[in-house]
Specification:
This protein is an alpha/beta fold. Helices cover 51% and strands 13% of the residues. The chain has two domains: 11-99, no CATH class; 107-297, P-loop containing nucleotide triphosphate hydrolases (Rossmann fold), CATH 3.40.50.300.
Length: 303
């Protein structure tokens, strides 16, 4: 059966169902137009079937004839849906509706917008992609690892930790991964670690910590940006360990960025948390000049 609506009735029931799908109520025995499209769908359509389903075939041909001139779904008479015909069980003709290309694109756009809103990603990082990543010496391996991760997800064996100096492109790569997965319809939570911890403190005060932690723990992909930049306390160490350890035990991937080496992170966060990250993630060095300083230098030379 073709289309998004399952319609496989028999005889007059099939006729009535087809009329309801296409919004028709009258039975006519002559066609107003040539049944070209329906013959593409059902090459063995008989003259008797054409007479029986004349109204439905006319409506199908009429709507399909409008498709080439359609520019926006808002102006589509079918609202992004179009009729299709197929030979159903027992040889009868069945009519249904399917989403057209523009309708599917519209649905995809709405889903991406919804996932972006739920991701916590700020507007600036929603624009970060692999295509607009500035390739500089020292970034090739990191870019390759990020692309591979995004292409293979969810079939990835380990997460990623991008390590490097400020302005080296770590966050851009992490955001590009998140945006690529969201474009594929996969939910992602993207957090700046200091902001995430501030939100958790607020959640504790408002007695909604379980809900806040659940969102982070069970996300299909969790991105922790700027790990190690937070003000460290025993409470911070405990929260980060609980989060990382849960995802380790549940085999849920993490992508993280940090300006610190594993040894420096261990001094700040403790060996338990870093040990988990070392075991569950591939650590990738992003070793390039701070692009922000380079832009300033280029601007100064241009004056």
């Amino acid at each position: 059966m073709t289309g998004g609506t399952d319609v496989e009735p028999v005889g007059q029931v099939a006729k009535r169902a087809a009329q309801l799908i296409l919004g028709t109520t009258e039975v006519e025995n002559t066609l107003a137009c040539s049944p070209r499209k329906v013959l593409e769908m059902i090459p063995d359509l008989t003259e008797a079937e054409v007479r029986l389903y004349a109204v439905e075939i006319d409506r199908l041909e009429e709507l399909w004839a409008l498709c080439p001139s359609c520019r926006r779904i808002e102006g589509c008479p079918g609202g992004g849906w179009r009729p299709v015909a197929s030979r159903a069980k027992f040889g009868y003709i069945s009519f249904a509706l399917e989403r057209c290309e523009r309708g599917r694109a519209h649905d995809h756009r709405l889903k991406v917008e919804s996932l972006l809103e739920a991701s916590r990603m700020t507007r600036r990082f929603r624009e970060r992609t692999f295509d607009n990543f500035e390739r500089r010496p020292g970034t090739a391996a990191a870019l390759g690892a990020a692309r591979k991760f995004a292409e293979e997800f969810p079939g990835v064996a380990e997460g990623l930790v991008f390590v490097g100096p400020v302005g080296s492109g770590k966050t851009h790569l992490a955001a590009a991964i998140a945006n690529r997965l969201i474009d594929r319809g996969i939910p992602v939570v993207f957090c700046s670690v200091p902001d995430m911890l501030a939100d958790l403190r607020l959640a504790v005060r408002q007695e909604r910590e379980p809900d806040a932690m659940h969102e982070l723990r069970d996300a299909e992909l969790l991105v922790l940006d700027d790990l190690g930049a937070e003000r460290v306390t025993d409470w911070v160490r405990e929260q980060l360990y609980r989060l990382v350890n849960y995802r380790y035990e549940q085999m849920l991937p993490v992508v993280a960025t940090s300006n610190l080496t594993p040894e420096e992170l261990e001094d700040r966060l403790g060996d338990r948390t870093v040990s988990r990250l070392v075991e569950m993630c591939r650590w990738v060095l992003v070793d390039s000049q701070d692009y922000r300083r380079r832009k300033i230098a280029q601007g100064a030379r241009g004056r």
